[in-house]
Amino acid sequence: MKILVNQQDNEAERLDLMIVVGGFNSSNTSQLQLMAEEKGIPSFWVDGPHCIEVSSNKIAHRMYSHEMLETSNWLPEGPITVGITSGASTPDSVVEE
Predict the structure, then answer these.
(1) What is the pLDDT of residue 97?
(2) What is the pLDDT of residues 16-40, one digit of tens each?
(3) Angle at 47 between CA 41 and CA 52, to 5 degrees
(4) What is the rounded average pLDDT of the residues 52-68?
(5) Nearest one of 7, 19, 5 to 90, comparing CA atoms
(6) Residue 3 confidence class, pLDDT cut points 50, 70, 90
(7) How far, in Å, are 4, 10, 25, 73 from residue 97 at the CA level?
(8) 32-35: which pairs have CB atoms within 8 A and are 24 or more residues apart?
(9) Is the per-residue pLDDT at 42 higher than 80?
(10) Which residues, other chains included, contact 93 with Cβ-Cβ below 8 Å and sequence gap of 6+?
């Protein structure tokens, strides 16, 4: 897995998916989700690690529209580029989990 910091609009470094971490009541985090959706990047807004079920490849996430979804097979096999971002008030410990 390649981790990009301060992702720019560089076609050579296109993200395969984005994980947005932060509270569902956070305006800042919702704007990060919106930016990913507007760029057409499959994005998953989670408020903590409990939203991700690694063993079953499922994720419970929120869209910018506030719709809650559970997506199966969200993490594709093979090499992918994943962006991870978080809201300003999201503790680093939550992102690291």
Answers:
(1) 86
(2) 999 999 999 999 999 999 999 999 9
(3) 75
(4) 96
(5) 19
(6) very low
(7) 18, 28, 20, 20
(8) 32/85, 32/86, 32/87, 33/62, 33/63, 33/64, 34/64
(9) yes
(10) none
Closest to 29 in 3D by CA, of 91, 97, 96 = 91
End-to-end CA distance of the chain: 16
Q: Tell me, what's the pLDDT at 14?
A: 82
Q: Is the dihedral of CA 34, 72, 60, 20 positive or negative?
A: negative
Contact by Cβ (8 Å): 37, 63? yes
Q: Are 91 and 21 in contact (CB under 8 A)?
A: no
Q: Which residues pair with 20 in a beta bridge?
A: 45, 85
Q: Quick one: pLDDT at residue 13?
A: 66
What lies within 8 Å, CB to CB, of 14 at 6+ separation is 81
